[in-house]
UniProtKB/TrEMBL annotation, chains A, B:
Its EC number is 2.5.1.18. This is glutathione transferase. It catalyses: RX + glutathione = an S-substituted glutathione + a halide anion + H(+). It comes from the Eukaryota. Gene3D superfamilies: 1.20.1050.10, Glutaredoxin. Belongs to the GST superfamily. Sigma family. The keyword Transferase applies.
Length: 203, 203
């Protein structure tokens, strides 16, 4: 049995989809959370200076999407063939674009530039993605792809708290199909157990 | 035989990795390039309002990375197992982070904000990625993963012209292993043929 150690800041954000998948797989892992002030010392030891990093038997894996796709193959949350995998990847990458748009606002260090981004983001980009993801889920039996649960759904739900803080709203409040998807993922017993026991953090 | 139609602006940018892969596969495709002024009319017909879109027998596929990973499986440019696929995905996602950093400068519409980004980008971020990608390629027999050609290499090389314009420099000029990788990919006969016949554009 390989040993897993997940290295990240003391937040959910981009590590949470990995924590959700490891929980779903009922795979024990060390949830190593370092404090912000340790980052300068840790950063040079991380591949390309980034986290989350998942150490599998000491071997460092990075990039949350790559790690999630890999874990998904071990627990049947990938597609049954290349076409289904493609649909999952399309849904994930589209969510990633949405996250990038919201992040571009949230992490903008230039006060005036940031201010100018809020109106198009809140009035156009966010409602556009909400409506189109709702439609996508409606057309896929309540999931983001292939009419069944996949790692794209897990990634989406695990990132929602983080996304909601950045977007300053509950993004699924008015999209009943997406809201139901969130509730369904959070009700999976292994994930429910993880959410109950995880350390509390806003993002 | 399915028919392929690729829909994009009249540039290389994010469509070029798909064009490279279709060429590598010796797959005929319609290279549909629309003009900027047609975009408002085309945008509502594209999934999530974005391009490139690859139509396969009329079915719209979007998201360049998802499409490339799918095509790669058809021509052996994926990994031989889940672990190799993971290494390819890690390399691709890391390159994508690099692209996001350069794009964040290039597409910044706020003059002062953009100006402030140039020094950290050119003095820290770009040299950091160059050095680490060079190291990665050195450790992988001249490729980005697994000691052999994969779709991550194709994506990287196909995006280089676009990246170089955004970064205002030849990004592989001083990284001999990456430069050799670029030259090797561009020397693959099917890709060479495509590059010779493709419409000219800066990015």
């Amino acid at each position: 049995m390989p040993t897993y150690k997940l290295i990240y800041f003391p937040v959910k954000a981009l590590a949470e989809p990995i924590r959700f998948l490891l929980s779903y797989m009922e795979q024990d892992f060390e949830d190593y959370r370092f404090e912000r002030e340790q980052w300068p010392e840790i950063k040079p030891k991380m591949p390309f200076g980034k986290v989350p990093v998942l150490e599998v038997d000491g071997k460092q894996l990075h990039q949350s999407a790559a790690i999630c796709r890999y874990l998904a193959k071990q627990c049947g949350l990938n597609g049954k063939d290349a076409w289904e995998d493609l649909q999952i990847d399309i849904a994930f990458e589209t969510f990633n674009d949405f996250r990038a748009a919201v992040s571009s606002y949230h992490y903008d260090h230039h006060e005036e530039s940031k201010k100018l981004k809020w109106e198009p983001l809140s009035k156009e980009t966010i409602p556009y993605y909400q409506a189109n993801f709702e439609e996508l889920a409606k057309n896929n039996g309540g999931y983001l792809a292939n009419g069944k649960l996949s790692w794209a759904d897990i990634y989406f739900v695990a990132c929602l708290d983080y996304m909601n803080v950045m977007a300053k709203q509950d993004l699924v409040e008015n999209t009943p199909t997406l809201k139901k998807l969130r509730d369904e993922v959070l009700a999976i017993p292994t994930i429910k157990k993880w959410v109950e026991k995880r350390p509390q953090s806003e993002v």
